[in-house]
Write a structure and sequence with these properties.
The active site is at 196 (proton acceptor). The protein is an alpha/beta fold. It has 14 helices and 12 strands. The chain folds into 2 domains: 3-184, NAD(P)-binding Rossmann-like Domain (Rossmann fold); 187-340, N-(1-d-carboxylethyl)-l-norvaline Dehydrogenase, domain 2. An 8-stranded mixed beta sheet has the order 5-2-1-6-7-10-11-12, sandwiched between helices. α8 (186-214) packs antiparallel against α9 (221-242) and α8 packs across α13 (291-308). The termini are far apart. The chain binds NADPH dihydro-nicotinamide-adenine-dinucleotide phosphate and 1,3-dihydroxyacetonephosphate (13P).
Amino acid sequence: MSIITFIGAGQMASALTFPAFENGHEVRLVGTPLDRDVIDGLRKDNFHINLKRTLHEGIKYYQVEEMEEAIKGADAILGGVSSFGVDWFAEEVLPKIPRNIPLLSVTKGMIDQEDGSMMTYPEFWEQTEGGKGLSINAIGGPCTSYELADKDNSCVAFCGRNMETLHYLKSLFTTDYYHISCSTDVVGVECAVALKNAYALGVSLAVGLAEKKEGIGAVHYNSQAALFGQGVREMRKLLAIVGGNDDNIVYGAGDLYVTVFGGRTRKIGTLLGRGLSFDQAMEELKGVTLESIVIATRTARAVKRLDALGKYKKEEFPLLMHVDEIINQGKPVNIPWKSFEVEYDG
Ligand SMILES: NC(=O)C1=CN([C@@H]2O[C@H](COP(=O)(O)OP(=O)(O)OC[C@H]3O[C@@H](n4cnc5c(N)ncnc54)[C@H](OP(=O)(O)O)[C@@H]3O)[C@@H](O)[C@H]2O)C=CC1
Ligand SMILES: O=C(CO)COP(=O)(O)O
């Protein structure tokens, strides 16, 4: 038995308590300063108010002030914040983690740099004062939290610098429904699964466009599939730009699929497609975790920098550029269908 301390009681970290606890490990779940009500609720009856699932009896719950006690004696740390908690995690959590135990993070996203390159969150954390010398690993791949809690079969990737550490982390979480590949291509896995959030917004515009035309509930798959295909094409190019292995497109495309059908990102794309302005859509979705806005903005900024430096042409990313126009310039949805046409002679 190992002791695993989960920091951040969001939906995904809480869902991951299922495989960990079922493997016989001691599970300690620590809330962030924003998770107070979540932890209070869990202490009462094990019900997670956001995940809407009852966690296993026997999990230990901690408020943020009790974090150090929860870390004491732990064999591994699971980081559960979203992109919005990345700085808090760097400042308040990383310095408290003993250097001899590994961190596994669920956070999906990347940070754009001045030179147009993109940095993964593990790389970012490794460079912070508190992250120096820590083994920082991450989870990517298609897996929505509530379906993991319901034990639907999921295939994900754990990535990090050291294969032995990844094998250890895998041994903690692997079950007959949670299937884990391991990869030392951190930038490849992380880039693929971060980008899917930007493109999931793009694909779900078609969901809203169909509803705008024919009423709520109307569905058309041709347009969704066209945007899905274009999204995969642009993701592959971006994967090549960051130097990730092309095979990671499996995690990116799989994650795009699950997010379009079951993710929160679908909600914003749908509202925009129906004709709401970006501000109206954001107002309607107040309180929902929407990382797609952050990653689409950052990736588009990186592409525009690369274009300005003469390294790549932004016209090669028409879907990303349109998503960026919608969310950052208040432009209406007007999918650039013709720019998706290509010629291949050869
Ligand atoms: N949900 C899913 O199905 C999946 C999610 N992921 C990834 O996991 C990560 C977490 O997602 P998920 O659990 O769903 O998100 P949630 O919004 O449920 O949880 C996010 C966590 O981060 C905390 N947090 C948010 N903002 C801050 C902040 N400013 N300072 C400190 N803590 C903060 C949250 O506190 P609070 O809840 O109070 O806001 C919560 O503990 C994301 O990067 C997501 O992409 C990966 C796979 C699947
Ligand atoms: O990452 C996810 C599934 O793998 C969840 O996506 P959302 O953040 O859109 O819910």
